[in-house]
Every structure is written in C-alpha cells, then in structure tokens.
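Long-time lurker. I teach an intro course on protein structure, and each term I like to show students one example going from raw sequence to a predicted 3D structure in token notation. This year I'd like something fresh instead of my usual example. Would anyone be willing to generate the tokens for the chain below so I can use it in lecture? Attribution to the forum is fine with me.
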Amino acid sequence: MQTKLRVAVIGAGAFGGWTALYLLRRGAQVTLVDAWGPGNQRASSGGETRVIRGTYGSNQPYTKMAARAVQLWKEHEKRWSRQLLHQTGVLWMAAAGDDQFELGSLPMLRDAGMAYEELSIDDMARRWPQINLEGVRWGIYEPDGGFLEARAACEAVVEGFVAEGGEYKQTAVLAHDLELGIGDGISLEDGSRLVANQCVFACGPWMGKLFPETIGNTIRATKQDVFFFRTPAGDDRFSEAKLPVWADHRDQFMYGIPESLVQDNQRRGFKIADDSRGPEFDPTTGERMASAAGLKTVREYMGFRFPAMQDAPLLETRVCQYEDTPDHHFIIDRHPTADSVWLVGGGSGHGFKHGPALGEMLAGLVMEHKDADTLFRLKRFGAPENPMTS
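-- Reply from a regular --
Happy to contribute to a lecture. Here you go:
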C-alpha cells in the first residue's frame, strides 16, 4: 500500500487555504497551519470584500487565471451552498489619452473567453448617470466580474478542507533556520513539531521574516487604507443593484465596491480606496489607523466622480496591506537550496481572486514534481536556481 505524501501548508489565506484543499483532493495527507485564523484582520486576505476582474493589460497570465478562478468560485458556491461571488460586473473607466492598459486588455479577455463590452461615454452615461465621467474616454464592462466575500471565503475554504479530511492547526510557525529546509520537522509555537515530506509556505507579508535570505525585502508589505461611506438615505444608486464594481485607471488608480449585503446582511457602506502603494508596514505590530491625508484624497475624488456622495459621512475605515514584489508578479517556486520547500506569495494587491486557480495549479506542481512558470520563479530577482528545476 503506497504511503500518502505528507504536506504541510503554512498560511490559511487565499493562496494557502486553496492549495491545501487541492493537495488534499489530489491524495496528499495535509496539515494547514495559521497563526491567527483564516481571513484574520492582520492577513492580506482579511476584510469583507475583494474585487474579481479579468482586465489586466497585455502579455500576462492573469486574465486566463481569473477566468478559471471564476469557474472554480462558482463550483464551490454550489458545493458549499453559500454565496461568495457577487457578479455585479466591473466597469473600467479608461482615461482620455492614456488607455494603453485597457486597449491591451481586450485581446486578452477575448482569448480567455471572458465576456466584456466596450462602452462609449454615452453608453456609460445612460447606464450609470450617478457617475461623473469627466476625463473618461471609454470603458470596459465585465459582466461576470464583481466582488468576493473575502473573510467568509477564507473561512469557507478551511471549513471545506476540514470536512474533506484535512487537519487544521491554529498556531504560529517559529522562524528557526527555515532557510535550511524542514529536516526533522517545523517548530510550532504550541511546542509541537510538524513533520512533512513537502511544505508550502504561503505566509503573505511575513514571508520575508521567515526567509530573510531567500525572500527578505523582495516582498514588501505596504499600508493600504480603505474607506466606507454612508450612501444617501433611500437612494439605491450606489448599491450593488444599481452600480458595478468600478476602477478609475488614471494617474492615481482609484477603485470601489458598491454598498453590498455581506457578512450576515450587514451593510458596510460604499467602499473606496486608492490603489497607490502606501508606506512600508509591519503586519504584526503596525497600528491599523487610516491616515487623514488618505481620507482627504478619497473624499476629494469621491466628490468629483460621484457628486451625490460629496458630503457622505464616513462610516468606518480599515487598514490592510499589500505584499508587493518589485514586478508585481507572484512568487511560486521551490526554495533554492531546499527542494522540499515551496515559497508562494507576492500577491501584490491582486492575488485574492486567483486563490482557487492558483491552489489548483500549485497542488499539481507539488504532486507531480513539476516546475512553476519562469514568470513566477525567484531567479528573476537574482536568487540561485534550485538544482531540481529544469
């Protein structure tokens, strides 16, 4: 009787949770570990909502990954009998004179089989008169895009993983000599050791601390402020029934999610955020207070683009973090000197939506002893190549 491959997955966020689930389904014996729990407030996968879209510019793999992810999100909604994906559509507002990103996205959307519409200013004005379209030239509308319930999704994945026979531990990994490999096991904060044949580290903004030589500052955590505003009483123009998720890809990239019913039907308000990278941030000790300057920027923008929201009161703020790589591509690779260790991260502010597609892909790489695409490998940052890679 063949012994099952034992795999430890460290980190129960969008990358780690889905990877653990797909490894389990591929026949591995899997233990999933997270320090604070799936979708916790310190994690890059925390918070209520995340955007799902296929518009990504030209010459990239993410549009096809997003198309596969949409399929998998829908499959798991049926499997788990719960809504996680809200297909409100996504509207991309292309700036006058600076629309190469959007133009480059169109053939990628076609190739991936993702539905989209090219909209004129008149088209957008008729559909969404609540938007001031000054400075906008045209738009892309993705009807199958929208937003995901982030924290609820992370919890659902772990619940599904455990229900299918996986083992989940809520404890921290001790960062002792992980650069040397997993050897006789991984030391955990609860005093135990986790022994496995293979280990996948999907630890988001903590990757550099766990692997200071291999990752170090290659993944940079930044503070990202998110704001929620009250919509006008009795006015549903800014709800998910009347407004899609939107992105304004100009000099300063702003995006937002309409008021929605998530997390036990609690209305959190109109979500808006500046996608510009904030200051460096420690995800463990950082104070999660939005800046006054960030609020001022968002208020000014909101009053310009959504005039009826100009005097909307602020309901709440959140601080999450991006975990950026220098080129904004993910890291998916074996450790350069430890063939049994996989390093996965660098979501760079756009990773959450891809969770199921990435987990499915990575589980295949681990189980079939294959290499990741060169786009995701560490050697692009000057790291030595693992001798086991081709």
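Some talking points for your students: The CA atoms of residues 38 and 154 lie 5 Å apart. The longest strand covers residues 314-324.
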